[in-house]
């Protein structure tokens, strides 16, 4: 089987986020970069599928030249082939991104490479649009299941599970299909040293997609207001009972 | 001069750090309490290919240099772990690589690289011969087309967690050679085939480090066990010592980084008399000095490793790095202990465990006195002092 995984280079999560003065971008001068975590799980899932069923795996990203770092990281984990849709560094909206990815998939198809599964992250760690996977599925007229946390290939079909508030939702989907993956589906392996050395030598296929208009236009970014937490000590021991009751009344809990 | 790591080296460091993050403080504390070998940790490093950094590509390793190997060991110790459980594979392998025959290399190295075979143990020291290696008396007598080995070794580490043992023994008696360092030979022994001929008696020490006394009685060795030329074992061994010193220095630098990090964190968090204790010069200056000493040691270490990788003489730098790094680690250990006050003694803080571990490298694998004597004699041209 052939599996395609689309990944995005994002600033390493967990650090302090600052914006550029014009409010157009995250200030990435002091940040490290990584593969968006849901997509790292998608890469791991693809590597496992190919280990189990045979075939070939391709990792694709749309981004600047430096995003080859993330492509090589994915190859170090075991992906066979990498494709860079090279941009000039500006952020592409979901419409333009989808258009570029669909064109790349169609080019592969014309060259005789059909994908059985197209894996995306459920949402990217930076812009969290939840859109690209769904839009690619619509553009290619493929079935799509989002937010999956389990995947198995059985008799040419993909059996997938989504976690809901009340339990698990299980479905079966014919392939080819688009699946968007959520963290927790697996525990991604660490790239081994031999894996890294192999990845370093592999070719990365490149092309420069054309931006298409019609998507979202970014006005500006703003940081969320940090919620202020206040703690008020009403007193100590049991003598604050009446005040607690009064507070509950004020909050209409009583 | 370029003092920066390459982009690849940065990523190796991050990758090793990620493996180490799976083995946090409670893991090492539990091992320490149970006096157990870090099997899972060593397995994870082996599976990641991190212990085969120095094995050439043709034998299944990564074929990288000593600089890269230093990064691996430093990161392990900087993460709070202890690379002593597995560092020997890196430098012990060097004797086989440099002096083994093609057949020996093909027989062992691919399996070592793949993690199917462990070469973690080296037996040189004997009860009557510590730093004065030429005094060893273990003897491999020629017998048929092989040898018969008898003798005793002490402080032989990790022998219970290794498949192979590199051992130095006399093949000619000291009184039969012109120079005392002649007549010594290196052997690679398959411990799985040694049977009762090697008796292993564990030695308990103040750290969780598997080390043993070995009693060897009539161990039969094939001629193919000999590494390099018979009688030249001491010279073969010396070849690898610079690598060992530079790698051990890297572990000490990792230790120093860990102690400084912990001391800084505690000095910022701990509030006494209404302000963090780190606001006091008496607390912050020793931490800053320990940091500076570790940085200086680190620079000499990189210089030594670069020379080694370039195939140039590195004796002076390797020895200097070993002394400076082990002293910097010990200074940082002292500082971390002092900054933590009574809490430093508490096992759950982890300081006392690393404190005990860092102490070892002031005297091992070579005592700093002999390092100093080497520099005095061979670098400065002063008379031999021992």
What report would you give on this structure?
- The complex is a heterodimer of chains A (254) and B (386).
- Chain A is built from six helices and eleven strands.
- Chain A has 254 residues and is an alpha/beta fold.
- Chain A has a nine-stranded mixed beta sheet, sandwiched between helices. Chain A has a two-stranded antiparallel sheet with strand order 2-3.
- In chain A, helix 2 packs across helix 5.
- The mean pLDDT of chain A is 92.
- Chain B is α+β, with helices and mostly antiparallel strands.
- In chain B, 48% of the residues lie in helices and 15% in strands.
- Chain B is built from eleven helices and ten strands.
- In chain B, the strands form three sheets. A four-stranded mixed beta sheet of chain B has the order 1-4-5-8. A four-stranded antiparallel beta sheet of chain B has the order 2-3-7-6, with no helix packed on it. Chain B has a two-stranded antiparallel sheet with strand order 9-10.
- In chain B, a hairpin with a 7-residue loop joins strand 6 and strand 7.
- Chain B is globular, with a radius of gyration of 21 Å.
- The two termini of chain B are 38 Å apart.
- The interface between A and B is small, with 9 and 13 residues.
> What radius of gyration of chain A results from the CA coordinates?
22 Å
Rg of chain B, nearest Å = 21 Å
| CATH architecture call of chain A | 3-Layer(aba) Sandwich
* Outline type of chain B: globular
Distance between the terminal alpha carbons of chain B, to the nearest Å?
A: 38 Å
Defining key terms:
heterodimer; A: 254 residues; alpha/beta; Rossmann fold; nine-stranded mixed sheet; 6 helices; 11 strands; B: 386 residues; alpha+beta; four-stranded antiparallel sheet; 10 strands
Summarize the structure.
The complex is a heterodimer of chains A (254) and B (386). With 254 residues, chain A is an alpha/beta fold.
What topology does this entry show?
The complex is a heterodimer of chains A (254) and B (386).
Chain A: E1 2-7, E2 9-11, E3 33-35, H1 37-53, E4 56-63, H2 68-76, E5 81-86, H3 94-110, E6 117-121, H4 132-140, E7 144-154, E8 157-164, E9 167-174, E10 177-181, H5 193-201, E11 204-207, H6 241-250
Parallel strand pairs in A: 1-4, 1-6, 4-5, 5-11, 6-10, 7-10
Antiparallel strand pairs in A: 2-3, 7-8, 8-9
Chain B: H1 7-21, H2 25-34, H3 39-47, H4 66-78, H5 88-99, H6 102-114, E1 121-123, E2 139-143, E3 146-157, E4 164-170, E5 184-190, E6 198-203, E7 211-222, E8 226-227, H7 233-269, E9 271-272, E10 275-276, H8 281-309, H9 315-340, H10 351-359, H11 368-379
Parallel strand pairs in B: 1-4
Antiparallel strand pairs in B: 2-3, 3-7, 4-5, 5-8, 6-7, 9-10
